[in-house]
Amino acid sequence: MKVVYERLPSKRIKCIATIGVFDGIHLGHQFILKKVKEESEEKTLASLAITFDILPQQFLYENLTYTGRHPRKCFRGYITDFEQKKEFIKLIGIDYLWFLKTNKHLLELSALDFIDHIFKYFDIKKIIIGEDFRFGYEGKGDVKFLKKLSKKYNFTVRVLKKKTKNKKVISSSMIRGLIKEGNLKETRINLSRNFILKGKVIKGKGVGSKLGFPTANIAPSHYILPSVGVYSAYVVVGKKKYLAAVNIGSRPTLVNFGEVLLEVHIIDFKINILGKIVKIFFIDRIRNEHNFKTLDRLKSAIAQDVNHIISKYSTLPL
Questions:
Q1: What was the pLDDT predicted at 253?
Q2: Domains: count for the chain
Q3: What does the angle CA 193 – CA 194 – CA 195 come to, to the nearest 5 degrees?
Q4: What is the pLDDT of residues 266-275, one digit of tens each?
Q5: Is residue 40 part of a domain?
Q6: Structural domain of residue 268, as residue ranges?
Q7: Do 218 and 159 share a structural domain?
Q8: What's the CA gap between 74 and 79, in Å, rounded?
């Protein structure tokens, strides 16, 4: 797969394309991307996925202030980052992945100007999108307008119905809701994989070590976090995978910092990884966070969590 980002192609490539934010690359996204791949192979054309390097909602939340009719929406965090998008889309077999540079100019392009920009670099013969597809400034472009533009630019449009599971539409917002609830089982079903969070190991207070369960404190960047509680997980350090217990919370038994921390106790692991980037593959939610009356009770609870994870997952292939 060729990634188009800093350098745009000098020659227009004939292709079948799809356009979207694609945060999560969930089952709905996978369905669209696979259709693009299938049809491009049938017509011996290249397959193209067009997306954004920064989620538009994230960019607007962090950089622009809107007043009146269009207030700035809260950004809840992303499901997949730049590198994960590349990884998961490559697995589907897409030939070209174009990351548009999200900036004020791009987001203020009209629907017409947005399509005009796309066609400068690729000769798109067909666009495959979902029925709720919107594009251009304030999302004013819709499927009806895209079909109208197809005559001018000489392409066809295929609209796919929303993918559902158990009569519920699969969407990034739905999956964010599942992650926020700590429902990792349903998240895994709708993503067709574990929710994976990447973060840098930062310096902590060393409290976990004093309790006998050293933890790596993780800075999760812009990811959405599961709800406060204790989780089972696999953690990838370098190229190796380890079982781990993950705590998300404010450590009320020790001292309530008033902020939510992400701490990982990697089981049977003694290497210093301060400053390293790790991947956390969330498996399941074990329990809520509790304010234990004594440190001994806290230590006992952590030991139970770790033993539970070892007994349930240590026999499974990592």
A1: 53
A2: 2
A3: 120
A4: 999 988 999 9
A5: yes
A6: 195-313
A7: no
A8: 15
